[in-house]
Amino acid sequence: MTELQQLEKRLRDRFVKAFATYGLLHDGDNVLVGLSGGKDSLCLLEMMGKRAKISHPQFRVEAVHVRMENVDYRTSTAFLEKFCDDLGVTLHIVTTAIPSDSPSSHYKPKPPCFLCSWQRRKQLFNLAQELGCNKIALGHHRDDLLTTALMNLFFQSRFETMTPLLQMDKMPLQIIRPLCLADEADISRYAELRGYERQMKLCPHENDTQRTTVRRMLDEMVRRNPETRHSLWNAITREWNV
Asked: 226 by DSSP, 3-state: which?
């Protein structure tokens, strides 16, 4: 097997293990994939699109790319359209912006990353319900979950992270993270070998966040102790009773 084939098999195996272990996909599901244009969401959509062509489970996949008018990052629309066409997946493009008079800002200033994420999630929820989707799939991988656990521990005084499956309280939607068992290093290398087109312009805030700082701390701990990720993941899954 070539390196690309080996990576694809490992990512596919972990994708299948995730939805089998955590009950992420079932017959009749209508899934909306959040497609930012980054490597993680492209890999997720590829895995979802290919899996949807297999007889079991039978589910439908659509994708949405949310553009922010007042945040300076861009992804090639032509590339996303071709990527989705090749997979036989319908692509929706929604344009929105961070409101200058956001209610949150009247009480306590919120960082731009929080406001951007909140606005994009709002568009995802609205479109999913318009399309009759019962699930939204996001491209968070295992390193994202590990970093979130540390962020919550350091800044929120609690040990918890994003879950593979989350039932929304106020709407009939579930958020699923089918790449939760995949490592970012595998996704990065797979994206390189598959020739995923890079985003035309990255978010100007992505290297100046608490998440970036904590991720660097995690990488440093891994350099000191290669078992760090494994130990932290075991602690997280014990909290899930898995």
From this structure: coil
Q: Which residue has the tokens 């491209």?
A: 139
Full residue range of the structural domain in which residue 203 is found = 3-240
- CB-based contact 178:18 (threshold 8 Å): yes
Counting the structural domains of the chain, the total is 1
**What is the residue type of 74?**
R
DSSP string, 44-108: HHHHHHHHTTSSSS-EEEEEEEEEETTS--B--HHHHHHHHHHHT-EEEEEEE---TT-GGGGTS
**In the chain, which ranges are continuous DSSP H helix?**
3-22, 39-51, 77-87, 112-131, 142-156, 184-194, 210-224, 228-240
Residue 148 forms beta bridges with which residues? none
pLDDT in tens, 97-132: 777 655 544 545 666 667 777 788 899 999 999 999
CATH code of the domain covering residue 176? 3.40.50.620
Q: Which residue in this structure is represented by tokens 């579930």? A: 174
